[in-house]
Amino acid sequence: MAKKGAQASPVVVVFFMFMFLFFSFVVSDNAEELELLSFKSSIQDPSGFLSNWDSSASYCQWHGVTCNNLSHVDKLDLSAKNLSGKLVSSSILHLPFIQTLNLSNNQLYGEIPKDIFSSSSSSLRFLNLSNNNFTGQIPKGSIPGLEVLDLSNNMLSGKIPLEIGSFYGLKYLDLGGNVLVGEIPISISNITNLQFLTLASNQLNGPIPQELGKMKSLKWIYVGYNNLSGQIPEEIGTLTSLNHLDLVYNNLTGQIPSSLGNLSDLQYLFLYQNKLTGPIPNTIFGLKKLVSLDLSDNSLSGEISELVIHLQNLEILHLFGNSFTGKIPKALTALPRLQVLQLWSNRLSGEIPESLGRRNNLTILDLSTNNLTGRIPDGLCSSGRLFKLILFSNSLQGSIPKNLSTCTSLQRVRIQNNRLSGELSSEFTNLPLVYFLDVSNNYLSGNVGDQKWDMPSLEMLSLAGNRFSGKLPHSFGSQKIEVLDLSSSGFSGTIPRSFGSLTELMQLSLCGNKLMGEIPEELSSCKKLVSLDLSHNQLSGPIPTGFAEMPVLGQLDLSENQLSGEVPPQLGKMESLIQLNISHNHLQGSLPSTGAFLAINSSAVAGNDLCGGDESSGLPPCKKVKNWWFFVICSLGGLVLLTVAAIGFIFIRRGNNLELKRVESEDGIWELQFFDSNVSKSVTVDDITLSAKQVNGICRGKSFVVKEIKEVNSIPSSFWSEIKRLGKLQHPNIVNLIGTCRSDKGAYLVYEYIKGKLLSETLHSLTWEKRRKVAMGIAKALRFLHSHCSPSVIVGDMSPERVIIDGKDEPRLRVSLPGQLSVANKPFNCSAYVAPEARESKAMTEKSDIYGFGLILIELLTGKSPADAEYGEQHQSMVEWARYCYSDCHLDMWVDPMIKPGHASNVNQSQIVEAMNLALHCTAGDPMARPSSTDVSKTLQSAFQMTSCVPTLKFSSTV
Ligand SMILES: *[C@@H]1O[C@H](CO)[C@@H](O)[C@H](O)[C@H]1NC(C)=O
Ligand SMILES: *[C@@H]1O[C@H](CO)[C@@H](O)[C@H](O)[C@H]1NC(C)=O
Ligand SMILES: *[C@@H]1O[C@H](CO)[C@@H](O)[C@H](O)[C@H]1NC(C)=O
Ligand SMILES: *[C@@H]1O[C@H](CO)[C@@H](O)[C@H](O)[C@H]1NC(C)=O
Question: Residue 316, Cβ neighbours under 10 Å: how many?
């Protein structure tokens, strides 16, 4: 047609050429130059880039201006020239022959001129206004010839205009990094030439339009960081040119469509941080060109298929933060380019494939917080590039493999909360680039103090909760250490003076070891120290006065040591100190009452020989010795007091001598015996017989409970001697027997009245801290009953019905009466708690008490009770179920949801795991395999002591 027209009228052509030349002459001489100058005058140019924009040279020579053959402005490139100001007029956009305008990376602001897209005849092909501070809406209109439109990283608001669909020529559209709202207009799918689409980082909502499926030229889709919802449209699977699909950080639901498997050119598939569910469709593993697959932080489930072997180009695989189960596929070991493998926070189990790393190119491996077992494979560092090794919170065992110890590329190593054992090899403590090393809460052993440490990059080190022996290392070969946690790790000896040279140190915890000697004054040279915990050791000598000179020290824990001398008064003048604990030492003298001592909790100063402080300290006031005669009078007074006390003591001893009282009443002669002299004065036979008829005997301010013994005359005398023995046993964790009262008409046992609830009623509402206290308290009571007295006292049918939780959350155990120990006499309705052998032999023993304790412990940990019917056909009993869970499932699967430890609290988690381990020992089928009550109590103490002691590291748990 065009050819035909040109042949038909040459005159017309000549005319048009003439007109063209005429206009270009007029325009170029004046209008274009004027437009440029007017633009210059409307903006600030502090860097002077536009300084040669004046009439001394032709505008074609001006900085940033490029002209075509006919001396018309063809391109204006003022990118990153530090220009600021408003674009008052759109005229430079309308320079008649301009094709390229780039004003990106300046500080232009205000609205984009409304008529910018109004002239559909505009010659513009390329418009880049990105990285400025433009506000307001995207102007309406269209330039059908525009190929590149980049308005990204401004502050544009409002909706994406529907007219966007009539930019038919666009190949590249970037509206990302604004504050656009509303839905993605369906009209956008009319831009069928579009190859690159970015709407990321806005506030768009609604669905991803299925019409995107019409945009067959698309190579990139990037709509992440919005609030898009609904499912991923299946139609995206028809965009076979797609190289890059990024829908991250939205609110997308449903399954990943299997149609995505048709995107045979796809190299990057990023769907992380959505709410996708279901399995990974197998078709995804057919995307042979995939370089990076990131589906992390969704709710995906199922197993990770061995089909992953087809992704031979894969370099990065992120599947963390989902609910994947099963094993880590062996096929991963055969991906030669695989560099980054992050599968953390799933429910993966089984072993790490043995050859992982050998034929890969690993740089980052993170498998933490799964339920992996077995050993750490030997070849993880075969690439020689591994720098992050994160395996914490699994159940890995065995030693740290030798090849990892020589992996000199390592920088960040977090293998805490496993069951690793063996020693840290000398190579391991000489890794040159490691800056973060956490091996805490394992079973590592050996004498690391005698070993050479040369880790010059080290900033954070935790060896806490292991079984090391010997002295603390003098140096770690690093001057950069900021956090040092060596708590609860079995160290002995003294605190090295050389720790004082760790100038960057901010947190130091040495608590729960067996450290002795004085606290070195040198520690106060650590001027950046914020938190210092030396508690639970055997440190002696004075509190260094130099501590008061530490400028940022906020937390100081010196409790449970043998420190002596006075509390340096300067400590009360430290402005930084907020939290202080000096309890349970041998400190004397007066407590300062200022600074951190103001309103100090009495428990933080208790267990010393201190006086003074302010009211909250709970300490007696200090008596000032004014002069000598005052002193003499005091001494004399003291003597008198002592004498009185001595007499009183003898008196009380006599009173305590369990004397029998005979009392006559209208019912006959009663024999009263009290085990607690306080009660004997205030309780009468009438009180007892009366309250036997009530539920709780509450009488004259004394509270007690009376239990009537039936058929008095058939009771053997051995019962009463046994009762007398019980009466002598008083312990804060048992319900103490305080007296008996008998005649030939009847007999009563008098117990202290505990205000509280049965454990069976209240267990489910207790926090982990309280449950811990309950477990510890019962263990202490058992230890007392079993080993304090000979022959030992058997509780009998241990069950949560036997435990009362008092007002202070302490458990109080009710001990069975002597006659009730023989199983024959008892209706075993709570028989679920009775050890199997006791059920058969009909005899209770210490070992059956331990069994019952084990069941209570399982109940405290899981919230389930042995009477529950839900263990199903697979597991005959709660014990069997617990045994299975402990070895085969993730902690989340069995721990009572009420006490589920958060992600951050690794300490709780390891306590729970250790307690469960103990519970399973206690419930061993073979009574001889069960620990003694002394062992139970010690194990619990050491498992739980960690908390009182291990500071929660302030380091982020992000990897
Ligand atoms: C961008 O514009 C906003 C709103 O007009 C203003 O508050 C902000 O300071 C500007 N930022 C820059 C870097 O000019
Ligand atoms: C998009 O194209 C369809 C037909 O293909 C047309 O009906 C519609 O009006 C177009 N929308 C825009 C905004 O151009
Ligand atoms: C995400 O989507 C769900 C359902 O599609 C909706 O209920 C929820 O409000 C959305 N969340 C946000 C933050 O928009
Ligand atoms: C291994 O990774 C490095 C970068 O870390 C890369 O340069 C090298 O080409 C990779 N080797 C293979 C076989 O992919």
Answer: 18
Mutation choice for ligand 2 from 187, 191, 192, 216, CB with most ligand atoms inside 8 A? 187
Nearest-atom index, ligand 1, CA of 135: 5
Q: If you classify domain 757-944 with CATH, what class do you get?
A: mainly alpha
Ligand nearest to the CA of 254: 3
Q: Which residues of 604-634 are buried (b: 16+ CB within 10 A; e: fewer)?
A: bbbebebebbeeebebeeeeeeeeeeeeeee
Amino acid of residue 882 = A
Helix (H) or strand (E) holding 664: strand 660-665
Atom in ligand 4 nearest the alpha carbon of residue 315: 14
Q: What's the pTM value of the predicted model, to 2 decimals?
A: 0.66
CATH 1.10.510.10 domain residues, the chain: 757-944
Determine whether the shortest distance from the Cβ of 190 to ligand 2 is under 6 A: yes
Could you say which of 3.50.50.60, 3.90.1180.10, 3.80.10.10, 3.40.50.620 is the CATH number of the domain covering 27-229?
A: 3.80.10.10
DSSP string, 24-63: HHHIIIIIHHHHHHHHHHHSB-TT-TTTT-STTS-GGGST
The verdict on the CB of residue 227 being under 6 Å from ligand 3 is yes
The residues of the chain that CATH labels 3.30.200 are 647-752
Q: Is the CB of 84 under 6 A from ligand 1?
A: no
| CATH 3.80.10.10 domain range(s) in the chain | 27-229, 497-624
- Comparing CA positions, the residue from 193, 188, 187, 116 lying closest to residue 151 is 116
- Our mutation pick for probing the ligand 2 site, out of 190, 191, 192, 216, counting the most ligand atoms within 8 A of Cβ, is 190
Evaluate: CB of 361 within 6 angstroms of ligand 4. yes
- Cα-to-centroid distance, 187 and ligand 2 (Å): 6
CA-proximal residue: ligand 2, atom 9 (nearest): 187
Alpha-carbon radius of gyration of the chain: 40
Mean pLDDT by 10 residues, the chain (959 residues): 44 54 51 88 92 88 92 94 88 86 95 85 91 95 93 97 93 97 96 97 97 96 97 97 97 97 97 97 97 97 97 97 97 97 96 97 96 96 96 96 95 96 95 96 94 96 95 95 95 96 96 96 95 96 94 94 94 90 94 86 91 85 63 59 54 45 74 74 72 52 72 77 81 86 81 86 87 91 82 84 88 81 45 80 86 92 81 73 75 81 63 86 85 84 63 36
